[in-house]
């Protein structure tokens, strides 16, 4: 059973395994910078926003970070920033992006809910705010159909997730607990074995038979399908209206205080990017693939890109209620104790942008800055 919501609102937060999660997931070093001068997007020219020379942004080379990929590739961010140069950095894991944010090596970043909750809790609410939504959905349990034919056949099987304590890891552990299947949250041992592997390694493990399935985001889920896997469960079916946050936009609190105009410029670009993606899905897919080739060294095969893109939905709404529920799931699995959520959102700049664009305001589920 999830912990009571009042537990999640305590001002003093401690964790059972946060130090373990940060060390296990964060590793060392920050993201890699974009490769060379980007000829595909506008250069910084015109007046600098708020007089700032550059803004440092972090994201993953991943379909679930489509807003960042397309916004950079199509120049939406740089256009709104004028003479303030955008400096992108690519990360492989949420905790390393949080470390970079703490070290002021990143000002604004795209990141999953679990790292955002962990980072906010660990800093006692002092290091970041969630300022926008970005993407919903895009997560599935994909299995070898010769080994697992139904959701009633998970006992004794080996399932992978990308990282200990990451968003998909929490989701799988919560699902197994609801099905009365016992798993030690730290070791992954139990009635189902949960193996933590990098997204890049999971397809090889699946192909070799080392795992029976995986609870993974796009495009890894669609990669597994091309290797003969079957989608046994689309995580959207577990959430109200089929929507749950998979990627947020976060910002350093210092950055928000010192450069509010730049934050709003980035949010205007994010809103425009999401609208463009919805209006131009085929062009958006091509844009995502072009950025992936630049950032990760190669494009996705057409069958993987097409399937993955259908499974994600860009959104300005941070779907705050689903983040709160994700935190409750982490508590219920034993990965977190008393996560701090009060004040994790500051949606005031986004709502100003949405109002100016004639759109409705988004809600923070009572977890906004007072």
General description of the model:
With 370 residues, this protein is an alpha/beta fold. It folds into two domains: 7-137 and 242-356, 3-Layer(aba) Sandwich (D-Maltodextrin-Binding Protein, domain 2); 139-241, 3-Layer(aba) Sandwich (D-Maltodextrin-Binding Protein, domain 2), CATH 3.40.190. The chain has 14 helices and twelve strands. It has helices at 18-26, 66-73, 76-81, 94-102, 113-122, 167-178, 202-208, 220-226, 253-258, 260-279, 281-296, 302-310, 320-333, 348-356; strands at residues 32-33, 54-60, 85-91, 108-111, 128-137, 139-143, 158-161, 193-196, 213-217, 230-234, 245-252, 312-314. Strands 1-3-2-4-11-5-12 form a seven-stranded mixed sheet, with helices on both faces. It has a five-stranded mixed sheet with strand order 8-7-9-6-10, sandwiched between helices. Residues 1-29 form the signal peptide.
Structural topology:
Elements: H1 18-26, E1 32-33, E2 54-60, H2 66-73, H3 76-81, E3 85-91, H4 94-102, E4 108-111, H5 113-122, E5 128-137, E6 139-143, E7 158-161, H6 167-178, E8 193-196, H7 202-208, E9 213-217, H8 220-226, E10 230-234, E11 245-252, H9 253-258, H10 260-279, H11 281-296, H12 302-310, E12 312-314, H13 320-333, H14 348-356
Parallel strand pairs: 2-3, 2-4, 7-8, 7-9
Antiparallel strand pairs: 1-3, 4-11, 5-11, 5-12, 6-9, 6-10
């Amino acid at each position: 059973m999830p912990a009571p919501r009042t537990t999640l609102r305590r001002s003093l937060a401690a964790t059972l395994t946060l130090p373990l999660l940060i060390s296990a997931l964060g590793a060392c070093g920050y993201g890699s910078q974009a490769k060379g001068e980007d000829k595909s997007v506008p250069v910084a020219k015109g007046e600098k926003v708020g007089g700032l020379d550059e803004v440092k942004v972090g994201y993953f080379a991943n379909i679930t970070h489509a807003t960042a990929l397309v916004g950079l590739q199509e120049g939406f961010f740089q256009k709104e920033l004028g003479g303030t140069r955008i400096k992108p950095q690519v990360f492989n894991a949420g905790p390393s992006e949080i470390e970079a944010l703490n070290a002021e090596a990143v000002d604004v970043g795209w990141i999953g809910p679990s790292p955002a909750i962990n980072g906010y809790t660990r800093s006692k609410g002092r290091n970041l705010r969630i300022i926008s939504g970005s993407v919903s959905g895009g997560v599935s349990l994909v299995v070898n159909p010769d080994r697992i034919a139904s959701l009633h056949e998970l006992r004794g099987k080996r399932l992978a997730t990308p990282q200990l304590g990451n968003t998909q890891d929490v989701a799988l552990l919560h699902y197994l607990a609801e099905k009365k299947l016992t798993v030690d949250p730290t070791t992954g041992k139990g009635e189902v074995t949960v193996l933590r592997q990098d997204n890049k390694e999971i397809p090889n493990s699946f192909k070799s038979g080392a795992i029976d399935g995986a609870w993974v985001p796009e495009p890894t889920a669609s990669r597994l399908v091309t290797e003969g896997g079957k989608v046994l469960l689309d995580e959207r079916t577990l959430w109200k209206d089929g929507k749950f946050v998979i990627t947020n936009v976060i910002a350093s609190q210092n950055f928000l205080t010192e450069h509010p105009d730049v934050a709003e410029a980035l949010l205007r670009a994010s809103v425009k990017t999401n609208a463009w993606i919805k209006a131009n899905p085929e062009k958006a897919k091509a844009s995502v693939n072009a950025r992936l080739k630049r950032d990760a060294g190669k494009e996705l095969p057409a069958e993987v890109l097409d399937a993955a893109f259908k499974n994600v939905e860009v959104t300005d709404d941070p779907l705050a209620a689903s983040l709160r529920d994700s935190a409750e799931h982490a508590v219920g699995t034993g990965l977190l104790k008393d996560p701090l959520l009060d004040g994790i959102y500051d949606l005031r700049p986004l709502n100003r942008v949405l109002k100016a664009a004639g759109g409705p305001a988004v809600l923070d589920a009572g977890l906004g800055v007072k």
